[in-house]
Write a structure and sequence with these properties.
This protein has 11 helices and 20 strands. It is an alpha+beta fold. Strands 1, 5, 6, 7, 8, 9, 10, 13, 16, 19 and 20 form an 11-stranded mixed beta sheet that branches. The protein has a 3-stranded antiparallel beta sheet with strand order 2-3-4, with no helix packed on it. Strands 11-12 form a two-stranded antiparallel ribbon. Helix 9 runs parallel beside helix 11. It starts with 11 loop residues before the first strand and ends with a helix. One of its GO terms (cellular component) is kinesin complex. GO terms for molecular function: ATP binding; ATP hydrolysis activity; microtubule binding; microtubule motor activity. Belongs to the TRAFAC class myosin-kinesin ATPase superfamily. Kinesin family.
């Protein structure tokens, strides 16, 4: 039976139960079930620790589908991601989030751990595989039509970006973990600015997050695994090797013409820097030279030495020339989408492996969990702040509020462009879904309940 598009409408929320770890005794797991209510599911579970008075809990009807512990990554992919490939091939952005407490299986879901078997591939690698299969079919179709598909500009591939958000910064995993600044520009858009390079003739080049072009699935897989190896881990309230950052993996359909056009924009920006600085310096020099100091220390214009307006105008004209070159380069990027015959150009999968949600449990902290440092506790508070901000953004968007609180955290600032992305026709808004990863361990009952509550709020908002 064909799986319907899970993100064709509102923000959808899925639940995935993790199998009971081998270290746990059989019969000690939470007893859980799902109940259909109209078009949504509710989840309930009970503890078997006290057979006489079992603790029970039931969610509201907020979830699209509940995966059992027996469902592997391929089943999750088919239900959550597979149907959205058709949207990617129309230039749409599709976002997928994995949310849950530390150790619940988020990274296993998004990345996977067995990178050779299709059934064990994480969602991002399975999506990359299917994207390349689709691109191969597009190229084959072009060749059969004797089109110009072998030309340098129309060779289709996937640009991979991998970065993690930690605290107030983003860290580029495909550029040796370089620290990047998250800034909101005068255009209202969020910009992630990487390292500043000082070049010859006063040029200053500031590169965005590195985009590694890949033209095969094998190359994409190697790139993702290389970036994953640089991800930051630390101790959490559950275990000592927990992901303490929000990892973002972007897979964008590109061609070489688009890549070259974007590189040209970066170069034009670097060329404008010294010219713009020189124009500013000349203006200030002429203004200062035209002033004289009074006996009381104030300054007034010197009628005998007015500013050299010719020199100022020449510097401004040179600046305008380089500004026009930058605008032309930016227009060339836009033209790539307008002139290509491939609607898939710019289509993007965005997978976000959110850091483990932290819920402080004094008894658990005192008995079994690794002791956290003050810095690690601070990281945990920042993670929870990010996750709360994400929920509020999703709710505000679902309710069509006039103000979306993207600026509430660096994470939501980074994700803003993905939420607001549209296809090349400007009529195809981005699509999003969240997977809640939960554990059936009784020791994780409080964390599982809080994860389902969080997802329930998201699901209710998305369905409004």
């Amino acid at each position: 039976m064909a799986v319907q598009d899970p993100v064709a409408g509102p923000f959808q929320v899925f639940v995935r139960w993790r199998p009971l770890p081998a270290s746990e005794l059989p019969g000690t797991e939470l007893q859980h079930s799902a109940t259909q209510q109209d078009s949504k599911l509710s989840v309930s579970f009970s503890s078997s620790a006290n057979p006489g008075r079992p603790e029970t809990w039931k969610s509201g009807a907020s979830y699209t589908h509940v995966f059992t512990a027996a469902d592997d990554n391929s089943v999750v992919y088919e239900h959550v991601v597979a149907a959205t490939l058709a949207h990617i091939l129309k230039g749409v952005t599709c976002n997928f989030f994995a949310y849950g407490h530390s150790g619940s299986g988020k990274t296993h879901t998004i990345i996977g751990y067995d990178y050779e078997r299709d059934q064990r591939l994480g969602l991002c690698l399975a999506a990359a595989r299917d994207v390349f299969h689709a691109l191969d079919r597009i190229i084959e179709f072009d060749m059969n039509r004797q089109a110009d598909s072998k030309s340098r500009g129309e060779e289709l591939g996937v640009a991979v970006r991998m970065y993690e958000v930690r605290g107030r910064y983003a860290y580029d995993l495909l550029n040796n973990g370089a620290e990047c600044h998250v800034r909101e520009g005068p255009d209202g858009r969020t910009h992630i600015r990487g390292q500043t390079e000082m070049l010859e003739n006063g040029r200053v080049r500031v590169r965005p997050i590195a985009a590694k072009p890949c033209f095969s699935f094998e190359e994409t897989r190697a790139t993702i695994l290389d970036g994953l190896a640089k991800r930051k881990t630390g101790s959490s309230s559950v275990h000592e090797e927990s992901s303490r950052t929000h990892a973002v993996v972007e897979l964008e359909v590109v061609n070489k013409t688009l890549l070259e056009a974007r590189d040209a924009v970066i170069e034009r920006e670097s060329e404008l820097v010294p010219v713009g600085k020189r124009a500013t310096d000349i203006y200030l020099e002429e203004q200062m030279a035209s002033l004289i100091r009074n006996s009381d220390g104030t300054y007034m214009p010197n009628p005998e030495c007015p500013p050299n307006q010719t020199r100022i105008d020449a510097a401004e004209a040179e600046k305008k020339l380089y500004q026009d070159r930058l605008v032309a380069a930016e227009e060339a990027v836009v033209a790539c989408f307008a002139t290509t015959r491939h609607a898939c150009l710019g289509g993007k999968f965005v997978f976000v492996d959110l850091a483990g949600s932290e819920y402080f449990d004094q008894n658990q902290q005192a008995s079994t969990a690794p002791r956290q440092t003050m810095q690690e506790q601070k990281q945990g508070r920042q993670i929870n702040t990010d996750l709360f901000a994400l929920k509020e953004v999703i709710r505000a968007r679902a309710q069509n509020q006039s103000r979306i609180p993207y600026r509430a955290s660096p994470l939501t600032m980074v994700l803003r462009s993905h939420f607001e992305a549209r296809g090349t026709s400007q009529e195809k808004p981005s699509r999003s879904a969240m997977i809640l990863t939960v554990s059936s361990e009784e020791a994780m009952m409080a964390a599982t309940r809080n994860t389902l509550k969080y997802g329930g709020l998201v699901g209710l908002a998305g369905g409004e």
